[in-house]
Specification:
With 256 residues, this protein is of the alpha/beta class. It folds into two domains: 5-132, 3-Layer(aba) Sandwich (Rossmann fold); 142-255, Beta Barrel (OB fold (Dihydrolipoamide Acetyltransferase, E2P)). The chain is 33% helix and 30% strand. The protein is built from eight helices and 15 strands. It has helices at residues 14-27, 40-49, 66-71, 90-95, 108-132, 184-190, 234-245, 251-255, and strands spanning 5-10, 31-37, 54-57, 79-84, 100-103, 142-147, 150-155, 159-165, 168-173, 177-180, 196-200, 203-206, 210-214, 218-221, 226-228. Strands 2-1-3-4-5 form a five-stranded parallel beta sheet. A five-stranded antiparallel beta sheet has the order 10-9-8-12-11, with helices on one face. Strands 13-14-15 form a three-stranded antiparallel beta sheet, with no helix packed on it. A hairpin with a 2-residue loop joins strand 6 (142-147) and strand 7 (150-155). Helix 5 (108-132) runs parallel beside helix 7 (234-245).
Length: 256
């Protein structure tokens, strides 16, 4: 089943909401607009009562602006994308952990980049929650790996990582390296909930086979392979790694 992502559009201009809604429907079949608000008070009430994966937030609104609204909700877990005509608030927005900052009029390329980043963050948080809830299977799970010789079956716990190689995927395990005809997205679905994490668009790693995290931004696997962690995935990776390893990690220190 394809993942879906709920969102809310907050802007004091109904026309701006309509344009953004239309763009999201055209570009993202997986995005569901569940609510819209045209003032900060109703927006705050809705955000407090309903969880959303992504919040699209205007800055200039009567009463309190979007920055003020976000400051009033420090525990908000949604990914926030500011959509505004004002460029001067960008630094403050990112200090508040905004996922994106798009200037009006909205360009499709900028919208796609911001939403894809938000989706990546949401996916990583969902996987981290699965691990926290003990979703990883207690009994060995078997992963089928199609290749030019047929299909090899490998225990998920024996797999170190998946690496995208053009449109194929190299599967590296304790016992072998197999080049599969599946793309890496197919394997991401296959190992969902089994303790794997996509640290980079080209790599999905088994969190239980990480030997070391290097503060420069790489991880070292049990087979000594060094794998980069993308800057977009870094925070969620460190949070999840601390859950799996039962070691509390100071994320701010690891960023230095």
């Amino acid at each position: 089943m394809k993942e879906t992502y709920t969102c809310i559009l907050i802007d004091d201009e109904p026309n701006a909401i309509g344009l953004l809604d239309a763009s999201l429907k055209e570009l993202f079949s997986e995005i569901e607009v569940k609510a819209t608000c045209t003032d900060w008070a109703s927006a705050m009430k809705t955000l407090r009562s309903t969880p959303f994966d992504i919040v699209f937030l205007d800055i200039s609104m009567p009463g309190k602006n979007g920055i003020d609204l976000l400051k009033l909700m420090p525990t908000l877990e949604s990914e926030v994308i500011f959509v505004t005509a004002h460029h001067e608030y960008a630094i403050e927005a990112f200090k508040l952990s905004a996922c994106g900052y798009i200037l009006k009029p909205i360009e499709d390329a900028e919208l796609v980049q911001a939403v894809n980043k938000a989706i990546e963050h949401v996916n990583n948080k969902r996987l981290a929650q699965q691990l926290k809830n003990g979703a990883a299977a207690a009994s060995p799970s078997i992963i089928g790996i199609p290749n030019n010789k047929g299909v090899d079956y490998v225990k998920a716990e024996d797999i170190f990582y998946f690496e995208a190689v053009n449109k194929c995927t190299k599967v590296v395990s304790r016992h072998a390296e197999i080049l599969s005809s599946y793309n890496i997205g197919r394997f991401k679905e296959a190992v969902e909930g089994l303790g794997f994490f996509q640290v980079h668009r080209s790599f999905i790693v088994n969190m239980h086979h990480i030997r070391r995290y290097v503060s420069s931004g790489d991880i070292v696997m049990d087979n000594s392979k060094e794998i980069p962690v993308s800057r977009y995935a870094k925070d969620e990776f460190l949070k999840q790694f601390s859950i799996v390893s039962n070691v509390r990690i100071n994320i701010d220190d690891m960023k230095r």
